[in-house]
Design brief:
single chain, 125 residues, alpha+beta, eight-stranded antiparallel barrel, globular, disordered N terminus
């Protein structure tokens, strides 16, 4: 019975890992640093990662970013663009770093450095 439970847990883990989007959407295109800055500054985006956790990210035009996660965790930091990458230097709870970005007409796509998952960022009205 223990072996069956372990096998089921492994299979569920593999299925969930398969839910992560491994490649950018075909309609998305690389976005330059200036265009990326214009798409982010003064706006708020929401996202849901493969494990179901939601994100809300507010990018202030002065370079400050606030991120709140649906589990109640929050952090803030300084954001900047480098070529087609978004870089955030968080103040404490989240790891800092840069993520490759792409865009289509309505959304931004972020490639997570920690998992390689492509996360869809949708502008919040």
């Amino acid at each position: 019975m223990k072996h069956v439970a372990s096998t089921v847990a492994t299979l569920v883990g593999l299925v969930l890992a398969g839910c992560a989007t491994p490649t950018f959407a075909p309609e998305s295109q690389p976005v330059t640093g200036k265009a990326l800055q214009e798409r982010l500054a003064g706006k708020t985006y929401t996202a849901r990662i493969a494990n179901g956790i939601g994100w809300e990210m507010r990018y202030e035009s002065q370079g400050l970013m606030h991120m709140t996660v649906s589990n109640g965790t929050a952090d803030r930091g300084r954001w900047r663009t480098e070529d087609n990458r978004l870089c955030v230097d968080f103040e404490g709870k989240f790891p800092s770093g840069c993520s490759e970005m792409r865009a289509d007409a309505n959304r931004l796509y972020l490639k997570r450095g920690s998992t390689g998952e492509i996360v869809v960022l949708t502008p919040k009205p």
